[in-house]
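Project outcomes to date are best conveyed with an example. Our students and postdoctoral researchers have been running inverse folding experiments weekly, and each run begins with a structure described purely in tokens. The record below, which covers 152 residues, was selected by the lab manager from last quarter's runs and is presented without edits.
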């Protein structure tokens, strides 16, 4: 079983989310009294709304920590920022990590490329090790298929 998650983007997103909540919290506490022209004034609801905006923004950042890849002898499960896929090895032609690409991808037999955002170039050796582990699982599946075909 192989389980892979991005490392660097998780640190960046959690740091940014915490900073955003803190900044919006500070802005919320500074909202008091009349507005610039004096036609209105900031109320408690405005402060709560600013804190709410900070929390929603932080949750938006945390969406980028969602990607992961899990694989075993049966297949591979890819969860990206919004979408998820569960594929048997039979539909996978290969595991690609092209030079200069931001992340690895699965090359499917129908000529589609499925990005695996969890394996990012920014994670360097961690991503390379993950791609190698996926390639080993894929090759093991291919050799099992070849043995079955030879046994018939």
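After processing, the design step wrote out the following sequence:
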């Amino acid at each position: 079983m192989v389980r892979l998650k991005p490392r660097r983007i998780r640190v960046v997103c959690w740091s940014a989310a915490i900073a955003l909540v803190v900044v919006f919290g500070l802005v919320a506490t500074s909202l008091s009294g009349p507005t610039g022209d004096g036609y209105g004034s900031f109320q408690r609801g405005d402060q709560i709304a600013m804190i709410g905006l900070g929390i929603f923004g932080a949750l938006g950042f945390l969406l980028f920590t969602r990607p992961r890849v899990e694989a075993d002898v049966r297949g591979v499960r890819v969860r990206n920022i919004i979408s998820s896929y569960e594929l048997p090895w039979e539909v996978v032609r290969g595991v690609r990590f092209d030079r200069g690409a931001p992340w690895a991808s699965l090359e499917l037999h129908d000529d589609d490329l499925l990005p695996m955002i969890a394996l990012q170039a920014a994670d360097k050796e961690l991503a390379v090790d993950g791609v190698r582990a996926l390639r080993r699982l894929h090759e093991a599946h291919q050799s099992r298929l070849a043995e079955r075909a030879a046994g018939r």
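The first helix runs from residue 8 to 30. The chain has two domains: 2-64, 69-151. The training component of this project remains on track.
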